[in-house]
Amino acid sequence: MHAPVPPSAPLLGIERITKRFGPHTAVDGVSLDLAGGEVFCLLGPSGCGKSTLLRLIAGFETPDAGAIRLDGADLTALPPHRRPVNMMFQSYALFPHMSVAANVGYGLKGLGLDRKQAAERVAGLMRLVRLEGFEARRPEKLSGGQRQRVALARALAREPKLLLLDEPLGALDRTLREETQGELRAIQRRLGTGFVVVTHDPAEAMALADRIGVMERGRLVQVGPARDLYERPASRFVAGLLGDVNLIEGRLGPDEPGGIRTVETALGPVRASGEGAAGAAVVVAVRPERLSLDGAGGLPGTLQGTLEGTLVEQTFLGDRIRSRIRMADGSVLRASAALPMTGPMPAVGATVTVAIPIDAARVLPA
Q1: Quick one: 246-365 is in which CATH superfamily?
Q2: Pairing between strand 162-166 and 85-88?
Q3: Which residues belong to any copy of the ABC transporter domain (predicted)?
Q4: Which CATH class is domain 12-237?
């Protein structure tokens, strides 16, 4: 699959890259263009090929086929040290015996800068990552978020055209990870450097990326802005990877005006948007937060299909209520309602009507 390109000229061009390890194909014919200044996230489960693709861009692996270009120059055969690219690893790989300033300055070796120029570059990077006053500290005296910023400063010291980040926030706890996501994005905006980020965390990808590329079994299966992938997934794999989703199996009815289709399911007919041949086995994907239960607040202004079931569980999650509804065929749908709600919530054990807005239901291949 070839990803759509942002309007600006591509900084990075990946052309049908393939990498095999023995009989296993880790990256399978991936093509992708990235614009200058773009933050692009490679998202997927372990073993999908995302880290291998990152290592191919960095030059740590050699492709079996395809080409990699940066600013139009072919990098495919260049060793890592000759590529205007740098990589930041999850472990950060800071030198424990060096100060923060020495760790950052280590990245300047071989650039031919004199001592004054190097000191000015380090001082600028310390300001960029908001660590002024920490220059003399050792890494063990820093918090996880501070160590992450030191590693980022060191990776940026050589002013790479492209920065590669392999699970950069994976070692941080949830609260610190969310704070650092914002800091990382702010730094990138100030610099305008292109970032390619590898992550298995969809929330991290959605928080950081201008576009996300979902990888499955070595292939790039869908590329686009986070909202497009979340609301219009191309497959049940993408739908499930980006967040919780209800998948209702059925058969696709004939074409209708406006791209709306009726899917005959064991729960009853469900109307959804999508394409496919009449009679094809499909699933209807709908996010829990788009389902509405009677008494839990409606979705005015949208056409809806309705189903009936029994409310079997409610869970309070602070900012929302999560519900589980058992349907007549024994399947369970999940709904999520933000608090405060506009109406009363049905009691557990009650028969409820589940409303599915057409604009929230998407037909996907089974």
Answers
A1: Nucleic acid-binding proteins (2.40.50.140)
A2: parallel
A3: 12-242
A4: alpha beta
